[in-house]
Specification:
InterPro entries: DUF2568
Keywords: Membrane, Transmembrane, Transmembrane helix
Organism: Microbacterium album
Radius of gyration: 18 Å
Oligomer: single chain
Protein name: 4-amino-4-deoxy-L-arabinose transferase
Number of strands: 0
Length: 124
């Protein structure tokens, strides 16, 4: 018995994943990880556990609602960029408050650069 793909399966197009998509995923993970580290290191017990879970969870929820490719709410591209900048800014401020301003500036610069490049590709 030969296995042939149905015509409907042949018409399905898979999204092409680029290097920029991978970099965007890595910057998202970096921002969420930065918020988790800030929550764990900046607060005394038991609040460090609460904040280490709540801060990244809030960032992930905001990202899923407004910025992700399958966002729950379809908003204007400028609103998407504003939410994305808010998440990246919070990661930058988290590093700054941990006493590592240069790491915070580097994280912010890399995240914003990748976000701008990805945004330009999405708009064009």
């Amino acid at each position: 018995m030969s296995h042939t793909a149905s015509p409907a399966a042949a018409d399905v197009r898979r999204p092409r994943i680029t290097v920029l998509d991978v970099l965007r995923l890595l910057t998202e993970l970096l921002a969420v990880g930065s918020l988790a580290a800030w929550g764990a290191l900046s607060w005394p017990l038991p609040w460090n556990i609460v904040v280490a879970i709540a801060a990244p969870a809030l960032a992930v929820v905001l990202w899923a609602l407004f910025v992700s490719p399958k966002a729950v709410f379809g908003v204007h591209p400028f609103a998407r960029a504003l939410v994305e900048l808010l998440v990246f800014l919070s990661a930058t401020v988290a590093w700054w408050s941990l006493g590592h301003p240069w790491i915070g500036l580097a994280v912010g610069a890399v995240c914003i650069l990748v976000g701008v490049l990805h945004g330009r590709r999405a708009v064009s």
